Amino acid sequence: MRAEIISVGTEILLGDILNTNAQFLAKELAAIGIDVYNQTVVGDNEERMLKAFKNAFEKCDLIVATGGLGPTPDDLTKETAAKFFEQELVVHEESWKHIESYFNKSGRIMEGSNAKQAYFPKDAVVLPNPNGTAPGAILKKDEKMIVVLPGPPKEMKPMFINHVVPYLQQYSDTILVSKVLRIFGIGEGVMAEEISDIINGQSNPTVAPYAKERDVTLRITAKARDEEEARKLIKPVEDKIRERLNDNIYGEDDVTLEEVVAKMLVSNKLTIATAESCTGGLIAATLINYPGISEVFMEGAVTYSNDSKMQRLGVKSDTLEKYGAVSEETAGEMAEGIAKKAGTRVGISTTGIAGPGGGSTDKPVGLVYMAIHIDGTTLVRKFNFQGSRERIRQRATMNALDWLRRELIKKFNN
Amino acid sequence: MRAEIISVGTEILLGDILNTNAQFLAKELAAIGIDVYNQTVVGDNEERMLKAFKNAFEKCDLIVATGGLGPTPDDLTKETAAKFFEQELVVHEESWKHIESYFNKSGRIMEGSNAKQAYFPKDAVVLPNPNGTAPGAILKKDEKMIVVLPGPPKEMKPMFINHVVPYLQQYSDTILVSKVLRIFGIGEGVMAEEISDIINGQSNPTVAPYAKERDVTLRITAKARDEEEARKLIKPVEDKIRERLNDNIYGEDDVTLEEVVAKMLVSNKLTIATAESCTGGLIAATLINYPGISEVFMEGAVTYSNDSKMQRLGVKSDTLEKYGAVSEETAGEMAEGIAKKAGTRVGISTTGIAGPGGGSTDKPVGLVYMAIHIDGTTLVRKFNFQGSRERIRQRATMNALDWLRRELIKKFNN
């Protein structure tokens, strides 16, 4: 089965909003083995929509359209799809009741304009919408199918997953299953080189590297008749990759680096405190994304000024004078100091130049010293990051967490 | 002039990457008065691309295509555009030299496959690419035009702004100029109601509200022959809106809430320290986004445990016992405590239940107390936020900054 995704809406056409729906649908359709042949964006205009439907059905059997199911006269998608198939709209009792009760619950009165959302072609499969007033629908004529879905992602996504996917699966005899490996500590290029023979030698599963904002991922995708068969195809390739990339792989699928580190801290009952200068609280804020962290996270200090480094962390004024605030020595005393003051087994610190100003030849923008103090031992490392102030602080934060992850592996897995 | 945006690439078609290029181009084309009629995504396939070009030119005079200018045989966009216009590709000396020197600089040797990036139709306008090897081009035949641009946003965007916009402006006699007002503290619905007469009464400029992740914006867009005329149309409408929404408007265009607050602190030489529990360092990290903040930001404390609230901030154990960590009283003592310990004029604190666990009937997930201590006076407020842990922490952070902004306005502008 071949599909075209049609996104309806002037606000997408004019670039006011980013078309995330199309990406979501493309991925989900591919995952159930439906080939996405084309994606189109059209404005809320009957003539253009009719033309888009006509073009799409020249090569495809399925159109998935999002947007234009609202109550205003601008919202035309369902009406246009029905017109294209020459089907009449009649009231759908269940939807009428749903919309009525939706309004009652929120203490409002159903307006005449909302009634239009309860009209569908007689033979359409109506898709319930627990998250809004507009039901979706599957319209059919001969071998062609138009699925109309609401535009807001929080209404569209669950409707697609819960109702459209099960319906479409009858038309597909293969599925795609993916597993994502998440990697930190080596760049996309180096990684791709290390496993180029695996990437090039594979057709099922395929192996595709992606450079993301925060990390690098490898997606292993298998095509099979069912999930079990797909998993069997993925396993040996995954094993080979893991052998090659080792600890650079920090997790799978949707896990985050902070979640991995936080879980290691919690499961080993390792209390931690943070002392941040250039990262300004980002390490603490990132770790605290993980709900269970309160068991081990005792305290964070954002010590931006020299005064606060001395008073809060006990950094010596000699050290600051002799080596400067951005130095190996200061980083080390910061990590030791926070662990001591907070009474934790781990202390982690950053001090650096996030820019845009404040750099020099000796200490350029992007220079960051970090220290990890762990059960009495202090380690210090020097990093050089590139980019904007925000980028440097983000990279420093992620690198601090990754370094801590590697130290914890050394400590507990050897 | 009417345009269609065609994004070429299997990775967009399959949903592997989000199509941000189309949004960028849609906005930029609208800004120079070119009507975007349609957006399409096609795979790297000659036949499909030819069909997409044909469809587009039925209604449009201009195609802006991105992607498929790389060195591999998969990269077909330029070749297909030339084929569509029946134009032959010949070597373009300047591009050849550019690609050669690009490789030399990075210490690599130009490969045969890269040579193809230096071939263009004889009459094409070649667009230089300082950020990569693939030049873009403007191909023309009769009244039709195809602009081909590289896919990577960091190559495409500057090429479009620096070379395509000036070229296309000769075909347009109107421009669109927008001004964005940024709003915090009232929802999109309430705001739209407050100014519904202004929104509905306007056609040039138009006034459009948008709910964003962090705030709400109003975009005022005027169509005119030049920027000056457009600004004159915007001014009276902006004034009317400002009168109505007042301090809910915190800034214009791309400014952020933290930048506004940080600038107020710096210009009034108001030193500040933060004491965060549920926000876990996010207020500090957000304020420190602003580079000049080091002049006034003295110290931040992430006091997650009761112990750290007592030892670091001097919160009384009585207070914690009697009212709990999440209480008006604790929030107040936290803000006072951090201001005292850090020796600052302002102290700001948060304590709350970010979830997902830890809520009760009395103190549900989303309950957050905040305090602002400013020159000896302590104010406390109670908030209830909805959503995920991350969302609650984000909303709490933004609301803390907005509250501080309003207190600073009271203090310094009255």
What is shown here, in short?
The structure is a homodimer of 414-residue chains. The first copy, chain A, has 414 residues and is an alpha/beta fold.
List low-confidence stretches of chain A.
none
**The number of domains of chain A:** 3
Structural class of chain A: alpha/beta
The dominant shape of chain A is: elongated
- What is the makeup of the main sheet of chain A? 6 strands, mixed
CATH topology of the largest domain in chain A: Molybdenum Cofactor Biosythetic Enzyme, Chain A
Quaternary organization: homodimer
Discrete helix count of chain A: 16
Assigned CATH superfamily of the largest domain in chain A: MoaB/Mog-like domain
Given this structure, which CATH class of the largest domain in chain A is correct?
Alpha Beta
Biggest sheet strand line-up of chain A: 2-1-3-8-7-6
- Strand proportion of chain A, as a percent range, falls in 25-35%
Please name the CATH architecture of the largest domain in chain A.
3-Layer(aba) Sandwich
Rg from Cα of chain A: 28 Å
